[in-house]
């Protein structure tokens, strides 16, 4: 396993604003290919500097860095990769899967992580090809799952080794089962927040994980009060005494719509035994929500969260997102898919 060099919080202090130079030599690009630096912002990427390559593929650009941040650099609209801008000059070259960036501690850490991740990507591609030609496909699926588990464990160890380095923001994207590893992820995010307390991106991610922790199994679900299809306020707390599944969904969400028949089956089977669903639609348009209710045959309780008030409070980042509550409103399971909901209800109510 390729491990990251542990970040050192006692390294020389950074000084901002800083005038830096990003230079490099890229193989197999035409003279005059555009090189664009993008800043990663909340609303997306913003191009902040451009230059062009010379005949030998070399380029150089100057940029004033106000604070540490995540960026991408694009060469000729063919190759683009992530980098961190600090108060150090950087050099950029080709790599097997994109671009290599060197010159600062954060980018050296990032380089090691890319090598690590690219190694897993190669293995995954090989297994996908093996699956196509395999007679025993279940055996290959098992290998793919084992590789995914190994990658998650490796990335978790990387998070710990990074000791709150800024590229923790980047690593978080490569951990699939965040609920399973929430404790470890939260520790890494807390450490990052300690090191970069004023950074807006860090504050946003930290806040999101604090909300996600509030939906951990064992916690009491925060109350929600929203209007149903008739405009009547319905509080989640009014359902205490029943097993309740909170179900964040929307009419435009295909996975949500695919899951509705499973929820309907479980609901019809267990509603008389004390099971209820508190469905929360994130649709902007009420008519789309109501059409989906009718088309999918939804008969359980539905409320509308057009302003994402509840979704934000619960740290919902993607849907469908579900929580199963016990009779006292305590969270006992998350994101039960397929027949998993019915199996859990059978355990509780049969």
In short:
This protein has helices at residues 105-133, 137-162, 168-171, 182-195, 200-214, 254-270, 286-296, 309-313, 340-349; strands at 18-25, 34-41, 44-52, 58-65, 69-75, 79-85, 90-94, 99-102, 225-228, 233-235, 243-249, 275-281, 301-304, 321-325, 331-334.
What is the CATH architecture annotation of the largest domain? 3-Layer(aba) Sandwich
- How is the largest sheet built, in terms of strand order? 10-9-13-12-11-14-15
Number of helices: 9
Give the CATH class of the largest domain: Alpha Beta
Shape designation? elongated
Beta-strand share of residues = 25-35%
Kindly, what is the distance between the CA atoms of the first and last residues, rounded to a whole number of angstroms?
47 Å
Report the mean per-residue pLDDT as an integer. 91
Explain what you see.
The structure is a single chain. By secondary structure, this protein is of the alpha+beta class. The chain has three domains: 18-95, Immunoglobulins (Immunoglobulin-like); 109-214, no CATH class; 225-349, 3-Layer(aba) Sandwich (Glutaredoxin), CATH 3.40.30.10. 37% of the residues lie in helices and 26% in strands. The chain is built from nine helices and 15 strands. It has helices at 105-133, 137-162, 168-171, 182-195, 200-214, 254-270, 286-296, 309-313, 340-349; strands at residues 18-25, 34-41, 44-52, 58-65, 69-75, 79-85, 90-94, 99-102, 225-228, 233-235, 243-249, 275-281, 301-304, 321-325, 331-334. Strands 10-9-13-12-11-14-15 form a seven-stranded mixed sheet, with helices on one face. A hairpin with a 5-residue loop joins strand 14 (321-325) and strand 15. The chain is elongated.
